[in-house]
Specification:
The chain has about 500 residues and is mainly beta. It has 4 helices and 17 strands. It has a single domain, classed as Beta Barrel (Porin), CATH 2.40.160.
């Protein structure tokens, strides 16, 4: 997958001068512009694999520690607002909150800090965020969460008579609002809305009086809105079913630009090698059945759903040159079939107690399909058709434990997740075609502490992964013997209720 950090340069390390940094950014920008024609020849694939930035933790620290098993009020606010009436700061041995578990507190405040909270963003910026949940009445509750990210790094330097300027700017926000209603003794409804906006720009400019210079920039902007609605019905005091539907739409712009500057500092030529305006639509439906364990604390959940998405270009002038005031298209979109993806998924999870120890386990199975095509023409009149046709299946297994250490006020959590992913990626052009069959196994583990003291909770997670790509090793070893360990992130959260 293509992430933003493949496009945007990293911040300078210790000891790097402003001049060398400006030269590095300018050189990288120029190199990107040279490489763009190769990217454009795989336009459909690039659209399919475009990864927008995500600024907010979509899961609480406890939820990340247990790979989606345990949930806090923060998780219900993000994905299941119809549970806001019953959620509580108390950490029950359940997969979901139940009636009569709400306790006496009516307000919940949460804050999270992490060294990698923002995904697909650059320049070492991390988001800061918080959430608020309030039970307004016995039948109405609501919640808000907000995240903000900013990273601005600008410099001006001089090397002799040559002036160098560079900028690495990133801003974004992520807002979420949810509400839950109880319409009868056994039924609750919930709805939510999310608004996300992010923009980034990496630019560099060099200029020498009397000779001229050049400049280059890489810009990305995204805007997204998501709406969701859900219902939960309690069949008995120990069983319930729930359903949720969500839809989202957004836009994504990406531009790679270089300019020639004359000896007076005026721009004479402009070369736009990438000019994408992409629309994104998605729809999802999820249903689940939950049942409390009869023999003791714990719960079992069965869930299934489908996700649909569509992504397409909203402009035809994908690249062009403006030389001497004359605009010449260099890459034009003639026709397209939107990139459409369909994903089916099903899962089963359970939590049960063995003495004072809580054990949890789960399994997930999914199948996905992606297809799309584009027809483009370059400035030489050459027409290229590209079609992609992908499919994949994944299997995931989760196992972990939650062990009290000190009178139920401090808990130690250890969990692991193993995934098997098998994918076929087909790409065809007018002159060639190919099919890649990729299989990969991944192992992730999480270690953390959970503290609960009256109306205050504290969570600390260390999330890391061990990957074993299934690739041939020309040393006589079996496939998949190469393993790489890399630290993912440290995350801290604290919450209080009153």
């Amino acid at each position: 997958m293509r992430h933003a950090n493949e496009i945007l340069p990293q911040r300078r390390g210790n000891g790097e001068s402003e001049v060398s940094r400006s030269k590095r950014i300018l050189a990288l920008t120029g190199a990107l512009l040279v490489l763009v024609p190769g990217v454009a020849s795989a336009l459909t694939r690039e659209i399919a694999e475009l990864q927008p930035a995500r600024l907010t933790f979509e899961r609480s620290v406890l939820n990340q520690l247990t790979f989606g098993t345990y949930r806090t009020p923060y998780d219900e606010l993000q994905t299941r607002p119809y549970n806001l009436l019953f959620t509580n700061i108390g950490r029950h041995a359940n997969l979901s909150p139940w009636q009569d578990q709400q306790g006496n507190y009516s307000r919940y405040l949460n804050a999270m800090i992490g060294n990698n909270g923002a995904v697909n963003v650059d320049n070492d910026a991390d988001s800061i965020q918080g959430a608020w949940v309030q039970r307004q009445t016995d039948s109405i509750s609501w919640g808000l969460s907000a995240a903000f990210l900013a990273g601005n790094d600008r410099s001006d330097a001089t090397n002799g008579i040559v002036s160098l300027e560079s900028a690495d700017d990133l801003t974004g926000f992520d807002l979420r609002g949810s509400t839950g209603f109880q319409i009868s003794e056994r039924r609750v409804l919930g709805a939510g809305i999310r608004l996300t906006q992010a923009s980034s720009e990496v630019s560099a400019r060099s200029f020498e009086p009397g000779l001229g210079g050049q400049s280059g920039s890489s810009e990305r902007d995204q805007l997204g809105v998501t709406l969701d609605f859900g219902v939960r019905s309690f069949l008995t005091p120990r069983s319930s079913w729930e359903a949720r539907i969500f839809t989202g739409f957004g836009s994504f712009q990406r531009d790679l630009v270089s300019e020639n500057i004359d000896d007076t500092g005026a721009v004479t030529d402009r070369f736009v090698s990438t000019n994408y305006d992409i629309n994104d639509l998605n729809l999802g439906i999820v249903g689940s059945y939950n049942r409390l364990r009869l023999e003791g604390l714990g719960e079992t959940q069965f869930q299934a759903g489908i996700d649909l998405s569509q992504r397409e270009l909203n402009n035809t002038d994908l690249a062009y040159n403006a030389i001497g005031g004359i605009v010449t298209p260099t890459l034009t979109l003639l026709d397209q079939d939107p990139v459409r993806s369909t994903r089916f998924h099903a899962s089963a999870r359970t939590v049960f107690q063995a003495g004072h120890t809580e054990l949890f386990a789960g399994g997930e199975l999914g199948y996905s399909m992606t297809d799309g095509s584009t027809r483009i023409e370059n400035d030489q009149g050459t027409i290229t058709n590209e079609t992609i046709d992908d499919s994949g299946i994944f299997l995931g297994l989760i196992l972990g434990l939650r062990q009290p250490l000190y009178e139920e006020k401090l808990r130690f959590i250890v969990s692991a997740r193993g995934d098997l992913i098998s994918q076929e990626r087909g790409t065809s052009f007018d002159f060639a075609s190919g099919m890649a069959d990729v299989s990969q196994t991944n192992l992730q583990y999480a270690i953390g502490l959970e503290g609960v003291l009256a109306n205050v909770t504290f969570d600390l997670a260390w999330l890391s992964s061990l990957e074993a790509p299934v690739t041939p090793v020309p040393l006589g070893f079996t496939d998949g013997s190469r393993k790489v360990v890399e630290l993912d992130r440290l995350v801290v959260s604290a919450a209080v209720s009153w």
